[in-house]
Amino acid sequence: MNTVDNNAKNENQLTGQLENASGAIRYSMLNDYMFRVVMQKSIPALKKIISAVLHRSADSIGDIVINNTVIPGEAIEDKEYRMDISMTIDNSTRVNIELQVCDLKNWTCRSLHYLCREYERCLKKGHKYENDHAAYQIGFLDYTLFDDHVKFFSSFEMCDVDDYYKYNSNFALFVIDLTQIDKATEADKASELDKWCRLFKAKTWDELKNIVKEDRIMAETAEAIYIYNSDEIIQKRCQDREEYLAEKNWYEEQLKKKDSEIAILREKLKSLGVEP
Description:
Elements: H1 3-14, H2 32-41, H3 43-54, E1 64-66, E2 85-89, E3 93-100, H4 107-122, E4 135-141, E5 153-159, E6 166-177, H5 186-190, H6 193-201, H7 205-212, H8 216-229, H9 232-271
Parallel strand pairs: 3-4, 4-6
Antiparallel strand pairs: 1-2, 2-3, 5-6
Helix pairs in contact: 1-8, 2-8, 7-8
């Protein structure tokens, strides 16, 4: 049986069994592969999340097409495969969403690259620049991006640096700090952005069920997490991602140590009157 058929079989067998699930969630939404396959499974969930970030009603978010769909369980040969989700809304607006657990110290540059890529793709051949196209980059980060600017939700748009006069609203970056959910504003709570983030971070099935019990779309998302956690092939892909990220972090730490050692040696050489 191929992967797609196997997933369909599991969905038919497991639907509704989340109610009896207990204990720790093996792979939560903080696993970027789990985040990827669960989010692409539910267009209504994506609409709710995008509307929460943009502070718009879900009804104002039109048809969504995922541009880089992956087949759940399919082997990913490239270990550095990006887990971002690129979407087109109403054949014009482009949105890119990614979840990052590890601080690789490159998010500001990386997110700009994603945003510019999506904005360029907004304009199809023959379209006029003045047409109302937009591109948004949404980053859910499980770390604080700026130590001197600690917020749960941040919106970055182009503006005049002197008086903050807005240049254009159709080119924006949004950062959600999953470690600062308690700093959610009343607007964040009204849009349920904080609730979605608690869903992403839920560690046990009881915690997850308590979060989603009064919301049908969130409940369906939780059900998808349960389904995929029950699939051995999906488990293997989640494990592969965790191992890859752990290995990458280890190498990053080793490079930092080497850089620190080199800096110390340079200072010693300078103190001896030797130019390194």
